[in-house]
Amino acid sequence: MKARLALLALAAVVSSAQTPMPRAESAAGFSAISPLVDAAISRHELPGAVVVAGRGDAIVYHRAFGQRAVAPNAEPMTEDTIFDLASLTKVVATTTSVMKLMEEGRIRLNDPVASFIPEFGKYGKSGITIRQLLTHTSGMRPDLELEVEFSGAEEAIRRAIEEVPASPPGERLVYSDINFFLLGDIVRRVSGDRLDRYAKTRVFDPLGMRDTGFLPAAGLAVRSHDVARDRPERRGGSVEGRPT
């Protein structure tokens, strides 16, 4: 399994309300959406989609298009389909958990990463801060070597520790998955819980996001888009989400 898939990532369904939100009586003004999505499906750019729009506390447009699975059996898309949200894990779970720890006074944005992961400080990385991980200005390269397969978060962190920065911290903006491997590990070290557990108990559960979590349970997996359900090697590799 490649590095980016070896780490535990979020399978999220954005279901924040305890009761259904009122839906607008008319979809007027949204007539342009359907032909745009249908055209993308006809060009084979995507098998299906769910489009939802809201204003305030009300859902004003919510419609499913196309198919959510194409193999081994075709299945129609439904409004409650769960999607793989991939790197939105970074903002839905990791960043939110980091900021929750900051709110609690347990970390500060300008704290050096090495104050939580002491081994990380070598090779000129001692000055890299949590803020720079969050803003992709740490100087770390985009990812670990994807050609070298390994499994486990511990191994990913060990390899991140051995990285030499591609540029001085704060000098360049380079989107880096390595930054968020490290942030997830900081959440674990500071809170005592893995990122998935911390995000569930301190973020998702308090917000009523009942369908949100890492690796959807069987009852949710049957509603999943085929990235996670028909390709088991992807399970746990990225965020899934359903807008409700």
Features:
single chain, 244 residues, alpha+beta, Beta-lactamase, 2 domains, three-stranded antiparallel sheet, two-stranded antiparallel sheet, 9 helices, 5 strands, elongated, disordered C terminus
Question: Could you explain how this protein is built, in words?
Answer:
By secondary structure, the chain is of the alpha+beta class. It folds into 2 domains: 3-8 and 88-204, DD-peptidase/beta-lactamase superfamily (Beta-lactamase), CATH 3.40.710.10; 33-82 and 208-241, no CATH class. 31% of the residues lie in helices and 12% in strands. The chain contains 9 helices and 5 strands. Strands 1-2-3 form a 3-stranded antiparallel β-sheet. A hairpin with a 2-residue loop joins β1 (48-55) and β2. α3 runs parallel beside α6 (177-191). The longest helix has 15 residues, at 89-103. The protein is elongated and about 55 Å long. The model is unreliable at 1-25 and 227-244 (pLDDT under 50).
**Residue fraction in strands:** 5-15%
Element order: H for helix, E for strand: HHEEEEHHHHHHHE
The low-pLDDT segments are 1-25, 227-244
What is the second-level CATH architecture of the largest domain?
A: 3-Layer(aba) Sandwich
> How many structurally independent domains?
2
Q: In the CATH hierarchy, what is the superfamily of the largest domain?
A: DD-peptidase/beta-lactamase superfamily
Strand order of the largest sheet: 1-2-3
Question: What is the gist of this entry?
Answer:
The chain is of the alpha+beta class.
Topology readout:
Elements: H1 3-6, H2 33-42, E1 48-55, E2 58-69, E3 75-76, E4 83-86, H3 89-103, H4 130-134, H5 153-161, H6 177-191, H7 195-204, H8 218-221, H9 226-229, E5 239-241
Antiparallel strand pairs: 1-2, 2-3, 4-5
Helix pairs in contact: 3-6, 3-7, 5-6
